Amino acid sequence: MAEALISLLVEQLGSVVYHHTDRGVKLVLNAEKDVEKFSRTLKQIQYVLQDAEKKQVSDPSVRDWLDQLKDVSYKMNDVLDAWNTEIGKRQASDEGKVRFSFPAYCICLPHFRELTRRYEIGSTINDLNEELDQIYIDKNKYSLQSTMPAAVNVEPLPITSSFVDISTIFGRQDEKDRLTVDHSPPMLLAESLNHKDSE
């Protein structure tokens, strides 16, 4: 269950950061960075979740650790919902604004509330980051095994080029001479056929 929740949350985090940054909508200072950090830490924890799910049956401390992780994940999900709501409200109010002449004190109050709400969301994201960092550190207490895919050894591809290296041509002296005469550019097939016809 925790694995599905974490996977969904990681996907949501990436989506939220991408969409809000892409639109240039800023909620609070450093919120995008904090969400990205949360997402990176969550991905690292994701690698040990399979082992933790198995061990929770016999080890109550691992079960408590998973419960803490779920709680933080649910809280972050709630914060993301609040963030999306605030941005939706802001966009709706920006689109539907009608300019009226109001006294300055009438205009300041809604903006103050909006700024306060943004600060609360940013502060909560920061607090959740700290909680998740502690959960990440605590995972080492339980000797959880990582299920991260092992690095695959990939053999390097051979170097290829369309240019002819004269020093690497062996045999077939006639073809070599034709390709390297006065270091002229290599002939195309059609040019080569025309060259044979003219001889």
TrEMBL record:
Domain of life: Eukaryota
Keywords: Nucleotide-binding, Plant defense, Repeat
Limits of the Disease resistance N-terminal domain: 6-95
Pfam family, one: Rx_N
GO annotation terms (biological process): defense response
CDD domains referenced in this protein's UniProt entry, alphabetically: RX-CC_like
GO molecular function term, any single one: nucleotide binding
PANTHER family for this protein: DISEASE RESISTANCE PROTEIN RGA4 (PTHR19338:SF37), TRANSLOCASE OF INNER MITOCHONDRIAL MEMBRANE 13 HOMOLOG (PTHR19338)
Identification of the protein by name: Disease resistance N-terminal domain-containing protein
Organism: Rubus argutus
